[in-house]
Inverse folding.
């Protein structure tokens, strides 16, 4: 076999290997989006073994860990990833989510605020960040802060009925019954089966009578 054929074969093999790796990486994200979190986690872990600097794999890994309710693992892995790239806004936001679910309210709030201060205006998880901040403020009984955060979340993503429900609750707790009613009604418009919104609407209407 002459040298040209050897080079050609090696080139084809290398191209095939690169495409295969790319497909595997794409598969992890597809699996995550399809709710197959354990499978996505396994692929990402293998990718990180092969390339410990692969921030994209860390991001999909942490997203999948949070959705699989492995919050402590997500916190640790996002911490590991931020040692490689401390300013990646995707890692900052998902680390904040992990800390939220672990009840680390102050740390989570600081990370969400940092995320919102640094993420581009078209960031895909801006609404989520405002929503989680609202929930933290509810935990802290800071209902006006919660109202502001939930209002920002529904302004960013106006089709999430549960966020409108929580917005209504924060406003109700502030005594802003007219605005609370509007939020509950919007939640029910989006999802007539939203039981929390229906109960909230009944409570607010009773207070407005």
């Amino acid at each position: 076999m002459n040298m040209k054929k050897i080079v050609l074969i090696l080139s084809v093999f290398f191209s095939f290997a690169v495409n295969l790796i790319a497909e595997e990486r794409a598969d992890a994200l597809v699996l995550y989006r399809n709710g197959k979190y354990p499978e996505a986690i396994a692929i990402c872990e293998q990718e990180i073994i092969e390339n410990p600097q692969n921030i994209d794999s860390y991001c999909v890994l942490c997203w999948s860990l949070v959705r699989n309710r492995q919050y402590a693992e997500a916190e640790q892995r996002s911490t590991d990833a931020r040692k490689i790239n401390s300013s990646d806004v995707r890692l900052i936001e998902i680390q904040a989510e992990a800390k939220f679910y672990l009840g680390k309210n102050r740390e989570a709030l600081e990370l969400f605020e940092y995320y919102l201060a640094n993420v581009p205006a078209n960031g895909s998880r801006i609404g989520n960040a405002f929503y989680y901040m609202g929930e933290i403020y509810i935990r802290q009984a800071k209902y006006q802060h919660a109202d502001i955060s939930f209002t920002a979340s529904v302004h960013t993503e106006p089709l999430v009925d549960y966020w409108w429900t929580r917005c209504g609750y924060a406003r109700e707790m502030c005594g802003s019954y007219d605005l609370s009613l509007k939020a509950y009604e919007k939640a029910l418009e989006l999802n007539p089966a939203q039981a929390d919104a229906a109960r909230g609407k009944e409570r607010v209407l009773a207070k407005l009578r």
Notes: Residues 156 and 184 are 17 Å apart (CA to CA). Confidence is low (pLDDT under 50) at residues 5-25. The radius of gyration is 22 Å.
